[in-house]
Design goal:
The chain has 267 residues and is an alpha/beta fold. The chain has helices at residues 2-5, 17-24, 61-76, 114-130, 151-158, 176-189, 206-217, 243-249, 258-262, and strands spanning 11-14, 29-32, 49-52, 85-91, 101-103, 136-141, 143-145, 170-171, 173-175, 195-198, 204-205, 238-240. Helix 3 packs parallel to helix 4. Residues 229-233 have low confidence and may be disordered.
Length: 267
């Protein structure tokens, strides 16, 4: 929407016809295509820029490879985008540190499971392509939230996110609007082969997040006994730095921490 509002022609490619129809209802040009399936894209217009923000249809390795590797490989070879600037939206989930240490744009990835390894492999596809003279860069987003993405509030409300073992583990967030600003800035002036982070300025412990949300909801935070059930990335504990990215891209955060960002949804 930011690109369209400033006068750019935007073509959206989504996986389902339902999603395409919703976008068309907002006067966007949209097509339902599975980018992981090669061919049949000759009708797409020549573009100056590509934002690749994929999502997998499942949590297994096959779904990740389909969405992130196959689709990205096809996009990079798309004739309509041969001369385009290319921004690939990845995740800080490529970092699997468990000791609360800081990670920044220069920290090597340390994937914690096979799906995170796929994310790293997809990043390499993009960065390797940039070595051939193409303008490609990567943005790693922390946990996204904002309008339509308030799952962390519902998890505290339901007790799924509770106090207990692991309370001092860090959580990292990026408001949807700040992440979008990073993507547009990278599309305009990102360096070929660069890695940028879209993450706020204040990583917070799980205890801080749960306590803040519960207080605003007017409820007692739930408590659990024993370790939280493991799932992909649940044991990751790291603090994401993004100051270098904001400095280079000229970004001022609208929401420096989750507190400012979630407050409008907790009134």
């Amino acid at each position: 929407m930011r690109l369209e509002k400033r006068g750019d022609r935007v073509t959206a490619i989504v996986r389902t016809e339902d999603s395409a129809s919703r976008l068309r209802s907002e006067d966007l040009e949209a097509y339902a295509l599975d980018l992981a399936d090669p061919g049949g894209w000759d009708f797409l217009p020549i573009v100056d820029g590509v934002v690749a923000a994929h999502s997998a249809s499942g949590r297994n390795v096959a779904a990740y490879r389909h969405a992130y590797l196959d689709a990205t490989r096809n996009l990079l070879s798309l004739k309509a985008a041969t001369r385009a600037r290319f921004v690939y939206v990845s995740s800080t989930g490529v970092f699997g540190q468990t000791d609360g240490s800081w990670v920044d744009e220069t920290t090597p990835p340390s994937p914690y499971d096979p799906t995170a390894e796929v994310l790293v492999e997809a990043e390499r596809l993009v960065l390797d392509d940039s070595r051939h003279g193409a303008t490609r860069c990567v943005i790693r987003c922390s946990g996204l939230y904002g309008p339509g993405r308030t799952g962390v509030i519902e998890r505290v409300r339901s007790g799924a996110l509770a106090l207990g073992d692991g309370d001092e583990s860090f959580m990292n967030f990026a408001h949807r609007d700040d992440a979008a600003a990073t993507v547009v800035a990278a599309l305009d002036r990102g360096r070929p082969g660069a890695i940028y982070h879209a993450s706020d300025a204040a990583p917070a412990t799980r205890r801080d997040v749960v306590t803040f949300i519960a207080e605003r909801l007017g409820i007692a935070p739930a408590r659990r006994h024993g370790a939280e059930p493991s799932s992909a990335g649940r044991d990751a504990n790291r603090r994401v730095r993004a100051e270098a990215s904001r400095r280079e891209l000229g970004i001022d955060l609208a929401y420096p921490s989750f507190r400012e960002g979630l407050a409008p949804f907790l009134t």
